[in-house]
Amino acid sequence: MDEIVDERTAAIYELGIDSLQLSPASDNPPAEARRFAAGLVDLRSRGGLYEEHPGAVELTEGVLYSARIDIPARVPVGDYTAETFLISDGRVIAGEVREIRIAKSGFERFVAIAAERHGLLYGLAAVFVSLALGWIAGQVFRRI
Fold it and tell me: Which of 84, 85, 104, 135 shows a CA-CA span of 20 to 30 A to 53?
């Protein structure tokens, strides 16, 4: 990021992990809030939720661009905002905001919907599956 924009521009547009401006809602002293923000960024970076991939954007014909982003499975479901900036000669000359929805799919989605809409049946099924697997494991280990 240091090769593309100066430190001030990176801070204004929050370009890069080091320029994120987190604002905890508390009455803690500023030094403690900064320490908390740094710890949160470090924790999420180690967990794979905050990543930087220099050179991941590909330009086509000097006009169109594409970027492939792998989203970890542990990203919370919900609506997110992606901001894209066009930078030329160290200055941001254009920006675009796009909404992104992260949702569950496949079997995981089926289980989440079942748990949400039919909580009692889901709970009973979970208890039944647990008991059945415990009984099967007991039978297997009894024979060994």
Answer: 104
Does the pLDDT value for residue 69 go beyond 90?
no
Domain residues for the domain of 94 are 7-102
Q: Which amino acid is at 63?
A: V
Q: Is residue 22 part of a domain?
A: yes
**Residue type at 74 in one-letter notation:** R
List the structure tokens of 50: 């905050």
d(CA 20, CA 37): 9
d(CA 96, CA 43): 28
Q: How many structural domains are present in the chain?
A: 2
Q: How far apart are CA 24 and CA 86, in angstroms?
A: 29
Question: Is the pTM higher than 0.70?
Answer: no
**H or E stretch at 42:** helix 30-46
